[in-house]
Amino acid sequence: MEFCLRAACLALTVCALAAPSAAAEPQRLNLLSWGDYFDPKALEEFTAETGVVVAYDVYASPQALEAKLRAKNDYDVAVAPGPSLQALIAGGALRKLDRAKLAHAQDVAPEMAARLAVFDPGNQYGVAYLWFTNGLAFDVDKARAAGGPAAFDPASWDLAFRPERLSAFADCGVAIPDSPSELFPVALRYLRLNPASRNEAELRRAGDFLSAMRRAIRKFSDSDDVGALASGEICLAVGSSLASLQARARAREAENGVEIGYAIPKEGALISIDALAVPLSAPHPEAAFAFINFMLRPEIAARNTNATNLANSVPASRPWIAKDIAGNKAIYPDPDLMARLFCTPNPDAATQKLIAREWVRVKTGKYP
């Protein structure tokens, strides 16, 4: 019965989208997303099924996404990381979702919906879609040789946060992202404090803690260190699961003998979730809801996972996911590690200012 109702709902949506005569121009859906985020054939299938042509525009950073949507461009669907989703909601740039038109939204894993609720309480504006984790990426051979059996434990933040451990990797190269929003929450968690703390004393303590890393760090990077890991320039990095997989693929293509590993520390780590959202100024909201519902179909979500190496939020998609992806714990962590993943909401302005000052001290050894 449920299947029949869903099928009927989709059929009505398709009919509504296809209502114009054959002589009319095909309807257009303006999509704003990261590059290479959707399986091209899935986009083609959506067009074949609905008659809606997808115009795919890309952004390179969350800041660029937010700027485009605040400028009220004619985008119908946007892929928004959690922190951007929160900022766009606060700025009144998004439309509330019509859940009656999103039958497949109920297939999203409750735990993923709960994590997205950190940024969007009640998931009123976004639907959790693809996600990845942040942990430790490393050149397997160099890191083991540098640290030795006792020092090399990628399953713990000890490797990065204990100076006596981290210093062993200084010669072969350590990189961390130039991003306090990625480092402060995990440092607070490691210190057994609230990773979303707004307490000044606790944030200064995290700043002291992170400052101890500075002497061993070769570079503070503006992006994930895919190239540096793949080429052997560095041996250890705090980074994302996606970047580590990209570095591994690049190293294998180069046939340079570099093997890249990735681990989610047992103390807990950040999970980054992208949401599918509809801008307030969307010119084609019906097409937008149809697109989101289509992408939430289990078999379609699986195809996007297979195309990107990003996990998706639809558990029913697992039968269609390639075995080497579904079984890769860097992409789909086991339940114990999943329970240790967390999100933190955007801090208020005063806290952001404090963290920014502390981050300057982490990088330079002195306050601005």
UniProtKB/TrEMBL annotation:
Signal peptide annotation: 1-24
Keywords (A to Z) from UniProt: Periplasm, Signal, Transport
Main location: periplasm
SUPFAM superfamilies: Periplasmic binding protein-like II
GO BP of this protein: polyamine transport
Pfam family membership, one: SBP_bac_8
One example GO MF annotation: polyamine binding
Protein name: Putrescine-binding periplasmic protein
Organism listed in the record: Methylocella silvestris
